[in-house]
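DM from R.C. (forwarded with permission)

"hey, sorry to bug you on a friday — could you get me a structure for this? deadline for the figure draft is monday and I only need the backbone to look sensible"
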Amino acid sequence: MDYDLIVVGAGPVGASLAAATRGLRGIVLAHERRAPRVATEGVFDSRVYALSPGNVEFLRGLGIWSRLAPGRLEPVHAMRVFGDDGASALELDAYRAGVPEIAWIVEDGALQDALWAALDVEVVAPAECEGLEVGPDRATLQLRAGRALTGKLVAGADGAASFVRRAAGITATERDYGQAAVVANFRCDKPQPGTAWQWFQGGPVLALLPLPGDQVSMVWSLPAAQAARIARLDAEALCAEVELASRGSLGALSLAAPPRSYPLRRLSAARLVAPRVALLGDAGHVIHPLAGQGLNLGLQDARSLAATLAGRGARDPGEPGLLRRYERSRAEPILAMDAVVGGLFDLFGAQNELIAKMRNAGLNLTDRLPVLKNILIRHAMG
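My reply, with the result:
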C-alpha cells in the first residue's frame, strides 16, 4: 500500500503527529508495542513533562487531553528560581501575569497511553527499519521483518539516535554536557501545590515539579560521577541530600518513586528536512532539561508539520516546497530555545566569581521587573 505519511516513532511527538493528520492515509511504526499501564492511586511516573498551555490546547483539540485522568494532572501557577549564592531569586506567577497557568505537569506513561488510545491509523509494532530509498515521487522504507512500505512523506520522530535522520543523510552535531539527570518522586512534609522549584548550583541544576497531593517530581542534572553517586543512595540518604539541596523549602521528604538516571547530550541536526523526509522532536534537536522544554519543542514540531500538511490543498505531502515551509517555521523557535538553554547552562556553570555575581544579580533584577517577568511567562506558553 502506498501511504501519504509514514511516521517512524510512536512516542508523544510521533503519536501526536499521527493524531493531527487524520485526513492523510498514514501508518505509524513503533519500536515496540505499548501495553496500557495500570495506574495506581498515589503512585506517579518518575518521568513527567511540564507541558506549555499552547501544547495542552493542541492536545485538547485532538481529543487527547480529555483522555487523561484529571486527578493525575497538576497545573503550575508559580515558579521559584534560585541562584547559587543562597540569596538571589526569581518568582514567576501566573495570576500576576494574567494567565490561568504557566504549565501542566503530566506523566510520561499517562500521556503515551492517551495518545495510543486515540490513534486511528495502522500501527506496526515492533518495527525495525533497515533501509530507506527516496525516488522522485515516493520514498520506500524497508523493515527488517521483510515488509517494504512506500509513502509520499517519511516523518522521523524516532529519537536522538534517529534511523531516519541517518538514512536521509542529514548530519547532526552533538555535545556531551558531561552531566546526567537523576529523576525520582518524593512526598513532602510541606507541599506547595501548583509551585515549581529550581535551584542553580554552579553547574548542577535541581528542579522539583509539583504532582497531585503532597508529591513532587525531581529532575537533578549533575556531573556524571555525582549523578551516579546520588542514584546509588538508599532512600534515607537520598532524601537527606535533596532536602539539603532544596534548602528545606518543602520540609522533610520521603521517597515515593526510586531514582533513575540518564546521560545528557545536546544534539542539533543540520537540517530538519531532506527529499521526502521531515524530522521532529529529538530526531532533530535535543537540549538540556534545565528549562523543561524538550518535549514542548517536539510537540510544536508536530503542530507545525500537521498545519503545513493540512494547508497543502491537492499538493503532494512530500513536495519540497511544503517541507521547506515546515523547516522555516521551526528554525527560529528551535534556534532561540537552543541559544537560551545553552546560554543558561554556560552562564550558571561558569566557575568565575565575577560571572557568578552578574548571573545572581540578573535574577534579582529580573524579579524586580514585572513587565519582563510577564514576557517570560507568555513566551513559555507557546
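R.C.: lifesaver. DSSP finds eleven helices and 19 strands in the chain.
me: no worries. The mean pLDDT is 93.
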